[in-house]
Amino acid sequence: MSAPTTETEDTRGSRRTITGTVTSDKMDKTVVVTVIRRVRDRRFHKFVTRRVKYKAHDEKNTCEVGDVVELVEARPMSKTKRWRVLRTISKSKELAS
Length: 97
Prior knowledge:
With 97 residues, the chain is mainly β.
């Protein structure tokens, strides 16, 4: 009989993290985060902006529109929610003014 082991980050594997801006916080414990990345077009060799919206779990409802947050991959929590808010990098500047 072996002692029960606790699951660590190493046994679960590495999880992807992405950074984006909160665009909606109207849902309960869920935020919509827009991730913008610039990729080089294969044919014309110009840089093109790509945008993707992710729904992320915000357990304490602390995120607001305009916050820059870091997301981490998580288990599916609903039909479209597969990300979790890891931390807030910077708060929105709208409340300061």
